[in-house]
Write a structure and sequence with these properties.
mainly alpha; 3% strand; two-stranded antiparallel sheet; 80% helix; 12 helices
């Protein structure tokens, strides 16, 4: 029953995010907001909404292992699994700005998280946690990232005809249904994940790093796979890298402000995997064809992810 509820929760969560993005984009369009700004704000927030809602419920309910595991696991899955799948479908050419600014920023986010989460290791405390101060610092980094994306918006006024132009009443209805779906789906996912972890006898962290992380990353998976099929590598890779930055700076920042998140040093392996994912993506840009994620590299990404998942369950 818990597995069925988890699947139902994911479906409601993702459909809710989809309706929220459609409604909010249509509403913004009516107020003459440019499409690139909609893409960098509403759509980006929308694809990260499942992670955000799951983390909010996990934080409020005190299931902090799921809160951290969901974000770290999503970031690992985004690069190793999602870019792996997208890169196999179509080799991804990456823009110079993405190589030198956005990928290093996602690496910086993972490094900052590693330092903040290891109080016991760095200053000799008896415990480690992401405190409210840490959360506020992460949100400050996020504000800098938003300022950077705002600069991109000003220099790239591109119109996208795929944004629907609904009536005002329909746009507001979509937003309302989307929010209800996010809240209801998020609660189902967290409750079912805790139940499954108890039933399997594994830690909540392992379920958060695997099942919950992949489930909340489904919007990114669909977006990147479709973009690769349509031969739009900028969307495929930008979606993933942007999501990773959002996840740490925005979602973990908000989660830690709501409730400080105790950190188990065992999870350092998972943070190291997050760092490795962004580092490898950066290095791959200079091996073989420059600034391109090739198929053999994508296959290697997926193999690393399969091996890492196996280690998680052996550990868990």
């Amino acid at each position: 029953m818990s597995i069925i509820l988890l699947i139902i929760g994911f479906v409601i969560l993702i459909k809710g995010a989809d309706l929220l993005v459609d409604g909010a984009s249509a509403l913004a369009k009516r107020f003459k907001v440019s499409d690139i700004v909609i893409g960098l704000t509403i759509v980006a927030f929308g694809t990260s909404a499942p992670e955000l809602v799951v983390n909010l419920f996990a934080s409020f309910q005190g299931n902090t292992e799921i809160a951290i595991g969901n974000i770290v696991g999503s970031n690992i899955a985004n690069i190793f699994l999602i870019l792996g799948v997208a890169g196999i479908i179509y080799p991804l050419t990456v823009k110079k700005d993405t190589v030198w600014k956005e990928i290093p920023l996602s690496l910086l986010a993972a490094l900052v998280l590693g330092f903040m989460a290891n109080d016991a290791l760095l200053d000799g405390r008896g415990y480690s946690m992401l405190s409210r101060i840490d959360g506020l610092i992460l949100l400050c980094f996020f504000a800098i990232f938003l300022y950077y994306t705002g600069g991109i918006a000003k220099s790239n006024e591109v119109e996208d005809d795929e944004i629907h132009k609904y009536k005002l009443s329909k746009a507001i209805l979509y937003i309302a249904i989307g929010l209800v779906g996010l809240v209801g789906g998020g609660k189902l996912v967290v409750d079912a994940a805790v139940s499954i972890a108890t039933w399997l006898g594994v830690s909540q962290a392992v379920i958060g790093l695997t099942v919950v992380a992949v489930g909340t990353s489904l919007p990114e998976l669909v977006t990147s796979a479709v973009a690769a099929l349509k031969k739009k590598p900028d969307i495929a890779i930008g979606n993933v890298v942007g999501s990773n930055i959002f996840n740490i700076f925005w979602i973990l920042g908000i989660s830690a402000v709501i409730r400080p998140l105790p950190f188990n040093p065992v999870a350092n392996m998972d943070i190291l995997m997050t760092i490795l994912a962004s580092f490898l993506l950066f290095v791959w840009m200079f091996i073989g064809e420059r600034h391109k994620l090739q198929r053999w590299q994508s296959v290697l990404f997926i193999l690393i992810y399969v091996g890492y998942t196996g280690l998680l369950f052996a550990r868990g």
